């Protein structure tokens, strides 16, 4: 990982950071394998950094395929410390480095038909050995409603702990949506598409009863197989209460006013 | 032989303790501990179920003398697995545990397996065997044919996505139980043949 210079951004938390070692060794990234140790273990021998391009397409005036540099460079890198709540009921506090997704998306001038944004992870079994199995229906796909994508909390991250992302954390480019479960934070993005309809995301395809499109952190709506009321903060012994919208309700609850969050889980 | 196997059976626990002490259990040591103890509980259950088929196939009668100890080690790891869930994961939050047992089917099934295992552990002594009598004791201990599938189902249902391990366990269990079914069927037909003298040699005139 190479060092990054970033200015302190807004919304940064004042909570104890999860140690870098835990953030970089305890990962759900099935492109490497189903165990949380797999990504850190396999990435060094498989993942090779290569010229990275991102295709931006769909309902926008200025679609195009850009190199990573060209996508990020026009913006000022910010450091933002966010809570990360995994759907498996554990959590971390991570100092991300990135740019607000909204600023990047605006450059492509989404049209009035752009109601949703769809993100796709690279498919390449040479560098993602997990893609040789049928664990998920590759490529990994995630999506946001346009207002969620444009929300100032939503981050397109290129680093953490002041350095560029390691493969296990989604190098070189990933999504961070702090009020949603971690699986919404799609890693190693190669495609961003503006669409009229919501994407059928990977986990929805895999287990529609268990994972919905919104995936907002909600202590009142349990996963069918476990409670979401509490979480274990990595490094802590006792569980803590899970906060609605992962503690970001003040900023985002209004996006969902009038919606039944038990139905739109 | 027995003391050596006894020591071997404690190795998984020692290894777990060592990993915990040296910080090798990763970022979520509590989860890792519970999972590993559960894995070993299942493995010992399968090993104990494997004793009789292996003894019959190899003719090594000394294996039979290890069966009770291996079964008790399955119980031992089940208890540790349960204690770590109650104490480490839920921190004795009894109302939360109660809700989970009712609400989460895989936990209901796991608890049922523990409950069924309890009388087997209690009646594992020679005294209890004598008191019950061999016939009733054997009938009671056939509960393990239910406990095994419950244990495998418990694991299967809690896995998020990768079913490789539960599938391996299920396959081994199917072989071990299937072998018994075949052996039982063979024994029945054999005894039926003995009972009716005509069956052994077909009637010469008809």
TrEMBL record, chain A:
Domain Oxidoreductase molybdopterin-binding: 47-203
GO biological process, one term: protein repair
PROSITE patterns membership: TAT
UniProt PTM: Predicted to be exported by the Tat system. The position of the signal peptide cleavage has not been experimentally proven.
InterPro entries from the UniProt entry: MsrP (IPR022867), OxRdtase_Mopterin-bd_dom (IPR000572), OxRdtase_Mopterin-bd_sf (IPR036374), TAT_signal (IPR006311)
UniProt xrefs under Pfam families: Oxidored_molyb
Enzyme class: oxidoreductase
UniProt-listed SUPFAM superfamilies: Oxidoreductase molybdopterin-binding domain
Enzyme Commission code(s) on record: 1.8.5.-
Any one GO molecular function term: metal ion binding
Cofactor note: Binds 1 Mo-molybdopterin (Mo-MPT) cofactor per subunit.
Subunit composition and interactions: Heterodimer of a catalytic subunit (MsrP) and a heme-binding subunit (MsrQ).
NCBIfam families according to UniProt: PRK05363.1
HAMAP family: MsrP
Protein name according to UniProt: Protein-methionine-sulfoxide reductase catalytic subunit MsrP
Organism: Paramagnetospirillum marisnigri
Lineage: Bacteria, Pseudomonadati, Pseudomonadota, Alphaproteobacteria, Rhodospirillales
UniProtKB/TrEMBL annotation, chain B:
Cofactor: heme b; FMN
Record domain Ferric oxidoreductase: where: 42-149
Cellular localization per UniProt: Cell membrane; Membrane
One of the record's GO molecular function terms: FMN binding
Chain coiled-coil ranges: none
Presence of the UniProt keyword Cell membrane in the record: yes
Domain of life: Bacteria
Alphabetic keyword roster: Cell membrane, Electron transport, Flavoprotein, FMN, Heme, Iron, Membrane, Metal-binding, Transmembrane, Transmembrane helix, Transport
Assembly description: Heterodimer of a catalytic subunit (MsrP) and a heme-binding subunit (MsrQ).
Name of this chain's protein: Protein-methionine-sulfoxide reductase heme-binding subunit MsrQ
Species whose genome carries this gene: Paramagnetospirillum marisnigri
